[in-house]
Design goal:
- This protein is elongated.
- The relative contact order is 0.13.
- Helix content is 71%, strand content 0%.
- The chain folds into 2 domains: 1-174 and 363-392, no CATH class; 185-350, no CATH class.
- The chain contains 18 helices and no strands.
- By secondary structure, the protein is mostly helical.
- Helix 2 packs across helix 6 (129-173), helix 7 runs antiparallel to helix 15 and helix 8 (211-221) packs across helix 9 (234-242).
Amino acid sequence: MSTADLDDDASDAVIDLLETTESVLTELQDAAERHETITAQINDTGHDAVVETADAYRRATGLLDRYIDSATGTGDFQAYVEFQDKFLGCVEELPDDLPAREAFETAADRLDSRRLSKGDFASAREDLTPAKKYIEQLESYNQTTDAIKTARRNVTLHRREINNVIDTHDEALAFADVDFDVPVEQLLDPIEAYNDQLTSEFDEFVATASAAAVIDFLEYTDSFPLVPFQSPPPDLRRFARESPDASESIPTLLKFASYSGSKLDHYATDPALLQTTVAVHQTFLERLDADPLMIERPPPTAGTLRQFTGEAISVLGRFASEKTIAHLRTIRDQSYHDTYNRLRTALRAQTELDADERERLRTGIMADERDALVDARDRLTKALRQTQSYIE
């Protein structure tokens, strides 16, 4: 399925992905065709012969570059003799069937003279032009190989992005049979009532209870892994057990910790200990909240919710009202009803899908998008498989 086959209401992001698919595939195809063309040219001559001719061209032009000043005109006779020996010797060693061997011989004949000029060197370089194409072929081969590697990398990264979007579509399509009109407030209202009441009471507990009581509460929750409060640091535990100042509330202790040493002496029994514990752990104390006891929206599965409420009720008994605990029991009791999973799934869908996604899901557009994405992924995979041998 192509972009043109999708409904006009298809996701712009999906359309962009499909268009990018065409772009990266074209890039790879163009690189592969250029690579095939230059490979065929090299194979027509023979890879070893091309490499040998290119090496000979490099050696010959290297000698021209090195000796153009010293071996020309009335300059260094020793350099002239040395150049002659090296250049003519280089040509004589070439195989008889070397491609463009005549070009090397023509250059050698031109340079086999008792006196050489810079013009002779320039002409000899022109004589070697037929051999130059073999260097250009190897350079083109390397360039197209690099282009294929780059194009394959782009295809691989794009396929990974498409995979992620397919996974997202699969998650959304799992809600295809959801009834979005079910009364999710039956589940949501008790959760919100519980969370609101819980937050209010926990904040009051932290604000008014003694620091010793709050730290003792946090230590108590260590036994309940499904209620994951952060365990208090060891020195804060010792402070709560040993310091008379731990009878003050946490807000009061945090205020004391901001005082200067001379002022703190008037308020704290052990100012030094207070500063080395409360002040050091100020962030930990300020961030205490009821989140570990709250029920998320949507709530967990029925089994997980029952396990959580079993531990949470024990923890709530240390500070919460019976009203708050009753809210939690109401939520737990709903998990035993046949409607719980249906309401939870509908709430998940409402939470995880926006209005556009829900409409595309309802009309089947999202399923079509997934089909188009899977087709694009298959084409990308095929292109990678077909060009693998080009980089080996």
